[in-house]
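Weekly puzzle thread! Below is a chain. First person to post its structure in token form gets bragging rights.
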Amino acid sequence: MKNPQAAISYEQLHLFRPSTAALEDAGYGMVAHVPSIFDSNWVYQRDFSSYLHERSRGLVDSSFIWAAAEALEGMGHHEHSSRLRGSARAGRILTEQSIVTTARKLINFLEWCSWIGRYRKSKYRQSYKQEEEGSYWKCVTYNDLVCLYADQMSKGMWGTKRLAASTVNGRVDEACYFLHWAATKGLREPFFMDVCLRAEQRGGARSKGEAREVAGRVGRVREDPALLIMPLEKDVEQWQKCVALEFGYVKGLMCRLIEDCAVRREECALWRVWTLPEEKSEWQISLSGAYVTVCICYGAKGEKSINDRGDIVGPKRYIRMSIAMAEELHHYRDVMRPRLLRNYVMAGKTAREKQLRRELASPRLFLSEYDGTPISGRSLYKAWTQASYQPVVRWHPHLMRHYWTVTTLWKERIKAAKALELEHENIVFTGDWISGEGRSDLLLIVQPQLGHISERNVNAYLVWLRQKFDASSKHDDWLRNLGEEMIYAA
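Winning reply:
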């Protein structure tokens, strides 16, 4: 078999992002942010683009409940099938960045279909009409997705390198969503897949311990256990200085905000001027005076909705921010940001353009020191990863959330150990105490801050915490060094 790395050029699909303003003026505001797909000759691909339009608006089922319901109905379990269909939910509304990511997954799958179709034609001398050569996706089966598409991505045969299990599973999931959607639209034969049902505990205070049935895809690539390699605190500080020196104060401030609050990259980039109340008298300061509680929803993962400002937002989450970070954000907002905004407005070439820039100024907090435009998540990522000094290999914003978690867990255990040492003499701390209390901290402190924690990450955090504790061969040595807050590699 030829290496498909060179075969990607067989079907060059283009992802085109039109002018958002032009589409809104034409009355297509609902899909103005959605890209379109064209083939190598720049012919508009209506079917693929229509899928992206419906996917962006949450009109594509992404629960796999439909597959379980169809399987049960085929076995004669009509009542169970009807109950499942009644509990099915439509897909979620996608943000601009999410729909671009979805489009790239779809294009990758379609290009693979083009390559595998041509390969089978040449190997097995199968007869394909000229107009069907780019339509192999119409006859792809679930077995093809699991045994060929996923396997070739995992082994590095399709693409430039071996892909992580999470990336492979995400691409196959998206292919399943598309093929089922195409079948419901009559664009191909029915698409069948293997799923399994399991009970999942409902979250939230009103759930009353209820469980619901969820469908999972059979044949997912198994993910390896997470292994945390955390940088030293001094290395993180040196990296932050490099970001500020090489990419500007504002991007350095954004990096420090992520370290302080463990927010996601997009949550940081979409941080609003009013997220931290502009009046200090309205700050919700903790009783200890060490933290300020703020509510975030812009850029948050989860089910999207439209707020009263007309913006797409995720579920609200209350997070804590150190008082020092709050003071620095407040000073930037009052002193530096107005100057950056003024530079952006004055860059307008005409009085009318200046007026429009002033009236339509973005409410996002972080503005570029170069031209006063809002700093995007992609621009922040570039500064983050391209600083001349990196604390660890493959250092990226999401890894900072892990760093925040393990440092928080360790500091909480230090405080608890000091308190117990004052109350009890000759106390002995065990690894079971570290692990048990660490799990409690994950539930009460970390999860509300991060928004969610997967069981895979929970295990990784607890392993790190236990290894950190076991790094000291004697408990007395550990107690004598309770004041140390250095973070070592697990």
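Puzzle host: Confirmed. Bonus trivia for everyone else. The chain has 17 helices and nine strands.
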